[in-house]
Amino acid sequence: MNQFLSGASMTVAFGLLYFVNGSPLWLILGVFTGVLPMFEGLSRVAREPRGEGDEAGAPSRIGYAYQEKEILRVAKAERGVLTPTVAALKTSLSIEQAEQILQRFAEKGYAELNVTDQGRLEYVFPEFVPRLADESAPHSDHGRDDRD
Predict the structure, then answer these.
(1) Options 3.90.1150.10, 1.10.10.10, 1.10.3720.10, 1.10.3210.10; which CATH number does 69-128 get?
(2) What long-range pairs does 105-108 form, CB within 8 A, spacing at least 24?
(3) Is residue 38 scored above 90 in pLDDT?
């Protein structure tokens, strides 16, 4: 939030200097020292959890979508099987945050919750699990004519 406020104040300051002096130099300085930091600060605010008025630690919509995508990228890299611990290790999320998002995926049907024989919770994303037919299919059959 500080970056947004300082960027906004610099934008106003250099904007006023431009209107007083009329030099385009003030506009250029205003963009680099005000507008760009202001938008960077705004994007950080959108990604950070809100504290006032919301549930403690609840992310904004933009932040939550980013967290979901982080989980999905890791699930794909892990060939469709993911635990909250691995998700937390390979993303910016805590174990609790990762587990909450994985539970929501399971509730909505995007993932399946499995408990291993050792009692470990695994979330399986069927879309990312390699299919047996895809792995065993010959790759050199392109252009082969099946008509005999």
Answers:
(1) 1.10.10.10
(2) 105/68, 105/71
(3) no
